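Annotated sample (chain length 204).
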Amino acid sequence: MSNLVRREIPFAIAVAAIVIMIGDYAFVAVTPLATAVRNGTVIVAAFGMIMGMAAMTIYHLRVIMRREPDWYYSIFTLVACYAFFIFALTPPILTSIQYAWMYKWINSVAARTTYGALAFWISAAAVRTLKVRSFESTLLVVSAMICMFANAPLASLIGPFAEAAQWLLSVPSTGAYRGVIITSACGVVALGLRIIIGRERPWE
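Output written by the structure step:
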């Protein structure tokens, strides 16, 4: 593959998209072009999902044909995937009775089962994490205990845990969350600038 196709064209597309999306906040004339870029992103994402589905199908068909260990799980994966896909496109799209039934009684139940199974690992990780070794870990343990007691059925009889938990979620947690959002936004801006000036080329 030539250097033009492998490096320069992706670089030009990335820079153009970044400049257009930044210009949308400053210049009204760029808004139609920015809208077209957003719509194009949706189309590219749709094609990406189709390619991912094709790659998954090829992989699982290979597993089934070679009778690799646990190959029957691949059959279930393909049947579930294409059943959801077909019923989702059945008129009315995404609201058919078959799709709603599969989503309610298969997808939702499987998700709840997965979360229920993960609860044991989450509990074990919490026990390892909530150990008082320093002042910071003490604050973490106390905050976690207050929030857990606030969600208990008898929280109103035990003490003012509900008000304390609400304060923890409203003040310290919200402040920390906003700090994370601001630093993440700065990181995204820095990454965009590095791509524009050619210092960052993740597609290579």
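Annotation: The mean pLDDT is 83.
Annotation: Residues 1-88 form one domain.
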